[in-house]
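ligand=calcium ion
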Amino acid sequence: MRILLVEDDTLLRAQLRTALHGAGYTVDEADNGRDAQFLGETEAVDAVVLDLGLPVVDGLTVLKRWRAEGRNMPVLILTARDNWHEKVAGIDAGADDYLTKPFHLEELLARLRALIRRASGQASAVLQCGDWSLDTRSSRVTCAGQPVALTAHEYKVLDYLMHRPGVLVSRAELTEHIYAQDFDRDSNTIEVFVGRLRKKLSSSSASARIETVRGMGYRLVPP
Ligand code: CA
């Protein structure tokens, strides 16, 4: 999953970046409203953390423009303390959730997980497909109750598919959602990650499997 992080405070942005990477997300960053708007319009982000007080163009304006253009990715806004007007304006402009500074990183991560879950129609923090299980809180994956060790990229591919069981996902879409904008992307690596996932996650009759749809992409198929 890919997060667009928009925050002009360098120190806070670094803390957020570290926390997001630690939680298994790919992160694109902007430190002003103009760059943020552009990234939100051109990149396949799964959620946005948007500070409202930004240079060049303020966060509220950016959010309104995205929504006016029909961009519906989940947006969590960061607001200044004791500014309830900002929260109301943000929610009215199309924010899905907000956090007031200062906040605990754990709370931000929990709210983000919830936003991403809701956007893909999942209710639980533990995604289950047959005997495969992925805990979005701890990034732990188990197969038939046994822990499975995945690399960061393997996890990102599985996480994306587990949020969309039964849905055909193209290689291009997977590539877009696991690599940041400035990363040298190669959609052939997706095939490698899927191959490794198939090896690591056994496929008994109770298991899900990752089906290849020739020329189209992949689909997570429940047992
Ligand atoms: Ca700010």
